[in-house]
């Protein structure tokens, strides 16, 4: 594995173990077994390294939701999104931090933009009508909001299964 790939892998592991506030260039370099200056040879900034870690997370999430969207299975795609947020909350938090990662590289918006288009196409095929961009964003926002609440365990006190709430949300679009 190249040093660059090792830094991204270790960064991913540390992020998921300690959260964004618990990692730094120095901690990633140390855990990767390289000098504290080595990350700068592969990433011009700390944010560029975070963008590479986020890209890996987005690729992982894409592996989960992509087949469901391609099969026009909105429920499976939404459940995969929810499961990713629940199982990998720190990565989920990072990949949704466009404010932090903007301009850092990784072409992250290329991935999420493609998902937005895929979601719109899936909605068109499953509902028989072309949704407006606002309708697509409303659905994504609903699913994302539930995933964000789930990732931070905010739904637990309600006693409501987030997947059941997701089913209610998806009934509105079918």
From TrEMBL:
Keyword set, alphabetical order: DNA-binding, Transcription, Transcription regulation
- What superkingdom does the record give? Bacteria
Q: What Pfam families does the annotation carry?
A: TetR_C_33 (PF13305), TetR_N (PF00440)
Annotated DNA-binding ranges come to 24-43
One Gene Ontology term of the molecular function aspect: transcription cis-regulatory region binding
- Give the matching SUPFAM superfamilies: Homeodomain-like, Tetracyclin repressor-like, C-terminal domain
Residue stretches making up the HTH tetR-type domain:
1-61
Instruction: Tell me which PANTHER family the record gives.
Output: HTH-TYPE TRANSCRIPTIONAL REGULATOR BETI, HTH-TYPE TRANSCRIPTIONAL REGULATOR RUTR
Protein name as catalogued: AcrR family transcriptional regulator
Its taxonomic placement starts with: Bacteria, Bacillati, Actinomycetota, Actinomycetes, Propionibacteriales
